[in-house]
Amino acid sequence: MLNLARANLSNDPLNVAINACVEQASARKHTYDQARGHLGASLIGDDCPRKIQFEWKVATTTFPARVRSIVARGHFFEAESRQLLVDAGFAFAPPEVLSFVAADGLIAGHADGIIINAPAFPGFYLATPALWEHKGLNAKNYRATERDGLAKVFPRYAAQVALYQNFLNVTNPALITITNADTCERLHFTVPFDARRAQEASDRAVQVIEATRADELLPRLDPALEDFRCKMCSHRERCLRYK
Ligand code: SF4
Question: pTM of the entire structure?
Answer without folding.
Answer: 0.88
